[in-house]
Write a structure and sequence with these properties.
Elements: E1 30-45, E2 53-63, E3 68-72, E4 75-77, H1 96-103, E5 111-115, E6 121-125, H2 127-135, E7 141-149, E8 160-167
């Protein structure tokens, strides 16, 4: 097959161009039915020398009369040491224990010692066990309260939805 080019040829390039980012409409803050999706769930770790792993996954929901879809990408934190508020991160309403209660399932995983690149050792939930547990929830629907997270002025990141807390199954009592 032969191609024939007609008219003027013009060039495009990266010089002086800005990258466009899609504009997503945030779901309004409120309670939603959320579907757990674990096909891309993974164990991740921030870049800092004293960072510990976490488990990331996706939940989806819809809002509005037109049933607009939205996604939230929670991260399950794994440290067992109580934080400033006296609670370990994993026990909070938007973490593993909150998710387990919302899904109506048991959460039981081993605790391991994890040494960071900085040489500090922390007790954390075994990330591989948490990931395996989470994958068992794939496709399940849970109730959750979504809030809007505004980014600081001048941030290059867009505002986003995040899970404030999961709602325990069988009632409307939040954690």
């Amino acid at each position: 097959m032969s191609e024939q080019v007609t008219g003027e040829t013009r060039m495009v390039g990266s010089s002086g161009e800005s990258v466009s980012r899609p504009k997503f409409q945030l779901a309004p803050s409120g309670d939603y039915q959320l579907k757990i999706q674990t096909e891309k769930a993974e164990i991740r770790c921030a870049d800092g020398d004293d960072s510990v792993p976490y488990v990331s996954f996706r939940v989806t929901g819809t809002f509005g009369d037109e049933a607009k879809k939205f996604s939230v990408f929670p991260m399950l934190r794994l440290k067992t040491k109580p934080e400033k508020d006296g609670n370990a991160a994993w026990k909070k309403g938007n973490q593993a224990l909150g998710l387990a209660r919302a899904a109506g399932v048991e959460f039981s995983v081993p605790v391991i010692d994890y040494t960071t690149r900085a040489g500090n050792t922390y007790e954390i939930l075994d990330p591989h066990a948490v990931l395996q547990w989470l994958k068992g929830l794939d496709g399940q629907e849970v109730q959750g309260h979504i809030k809007n997270q505004k980014q600081p002025a001048g941030s290059t990141y867009p505002d986003k939805n995040e899970i404030a807390y999961f709602i325990e199954s069988g009632n409307n009592n939040a954690f």
